[in-house]
Design a protein that fits this description.
The complex is a heterodimer of chains A (258) and B (80). Chain A is mostly helical and 258 residues long. In chain A, 60% of the residues lie in helices and 0% in strands. Chain A is built from 12 helices and no strands. In chain A, helix 6 crosses helix 7, helix 7 packs across helix 10 and helix 10 crosses helix 11. The two termini of chain A are 31 Å apart. Chain B is mostly helical and 80 residues long. Chain B has 5 helices and no strands. Chain B has one domain. In chain B, 78% of the residues lie in helices and 0% in strands. Classes of the chains: A mainly alpha (258), B mainly alpha (80). The interface between A and B is large, with 55 and 40 residues. The structure holds zinc ion (ZN). The site of zinc ion has 6 residues of chain B, from helix 1 and helix 4.
Chain lengths: 258, 80
């Protein structure tokens, strides 16, 4: 215990500033395009892709067909990612109705903008970026026009240093029913600042890489890394109270369950 | 290696992205000596695994189908 708490200040510094100045993602109606100066020209890229042949991501061909007017190709893409997009929207908006709207609007907007999609970016990452912007727009509507960014509410140092160092039960989730576990997991992640929640959801749950998460959120890679560590540690800390190596009866008595 | 240094490398350990053999050895040595860091590492891993295997916002099948149909209908309307 001593060893870990002693180094608090140093760890915080190594994580960098809490609010890096250049990463605020403002609402511009989802029209921001990430800079792609470092990628080859689109025509050069399609040559490379046709040479790459079988290594090509399967979405590339689907996007091409959808662009050429094949709606069934787009149907396949929607099927493939609709559930992820819904979950991401729900993580950001925390509202089922908003998440359903975002899911529809994001796919429609992506369809309308397919011509602008560059084959050298991953379709999924591009789609997530659109969904993130649509989600923030929904939040803005709910707050009657107030700016909403992914950086909000990050002025917290909570959970940066592990405090609860007791081990967990071997398979702690088995001590709860599916419904109880769902409640615990939802309540726990909802307590995190939005900027942490979203990074964790994209990077650890929905399978984006650190670089893709950065691109989808318009954040720098170091900002994503620092948030990811803090999100993981905060979730761990909060889940500890449910998953400790102790009997379920003791938890009932202490009123942990609701 | 101190606990603070270990913690700073936590994500790299979880993502298995420590390439330098020397660093890897230092980390493993610290883990053998320090039960607290071992708990933090294991429970953080478990945290991620639980969130990955239990999707907390899952649309019921019917709702998903309804939304899917709505999306495709709106896309088709755009085409014409
Ligand atoms: Zn330690």
């Amino acid at each position: 215990m001593r060893g870990i708490t002693a180094g608090t200040g140093r760890l915080l510094r190594s994580l960098g500033p809490l609010r890096p100045p250049s990463v605020t993602l403002m609402l511009t109606g989802g029209d921001q395009k990430p800079t792609r100066d470092h990628f080859p020209h689109p025509t050069a890229m399609s040559t490379i892709q046709s040479i790459a042949g079988e290594n090509e991501h399967p979405d590339v061909a689907l996007v091409e067909r959808a662009r050429a007017g094949d709606v069934s190709a787009y149907d396949t893409l929607v099927r493939k990612y609709e559930r992820q997009i819904f979950r991401i929207a729900q993580h950001i908006t925390q509202n089922r109705e908003d998440a359903e709207d975002v899911m529809q609007d994001a796919f429609l907007k992506a369809y309308e903008k397919l011509d602008q999609f560059q084959g050298n970016a991953k379709f999924y990452t591009w789609l997530v970026r659109i969904a993130v912007n649509e989600s923030l727009m929904r939040l803005r509507k709910r707050r009657s026009g107030k700016m909403v960014s992914i950086d909000e509410d990050l002025e917290t140092e909570e959970g940066t240093v592990p405090r609860d160092l007791a081990d967990w039960a071997p398979d702690p989730e088995q001590n709860y029913s599916t419904a109880e576990l769902g409640d615990i997991l939802r309540r726990t992640i909802q307590g995190l600042p939005r900027g942490f929640r979203v990074v964790f959801a994209l990077r650890d749950v929905e399978g984006l890489s650190t670089e893709e998460t950065a691109e989808a959120l318009g954040l720098s890679v170091p900002a994503v890394k620092s948030r990811l560590l803090r999100a993981r540690l905060q979730l761990r800390e909060r889940l500890s109270r449910y998953f400790h190596r102790r009997t379920r009866a003791a938890q009932r008595k202490s009123g942990v369950e609701t | 290696m101190t606990c603070t240094e270990f913690l700073a490398m936590l994500d790299d350990m979880i993502d298995d992205s420590i390439v330098a053999a020397e660093t890897r050895a230092e980390v493993e040595q610290h883990l053998r000596k320090c039960g607290h860091c071992e708990v933090v590492l294991n429970t953080t891993r478990k945290t991620i695994e639980i969130y990955r295997s239990h999707h907390i916002y899952e649309l019921p099948y019917e709702a998903n189908e309804r939304l899917h149909e709505a999306i495709m209908a709106r896309c088709k309307a755009k085409r014409c």
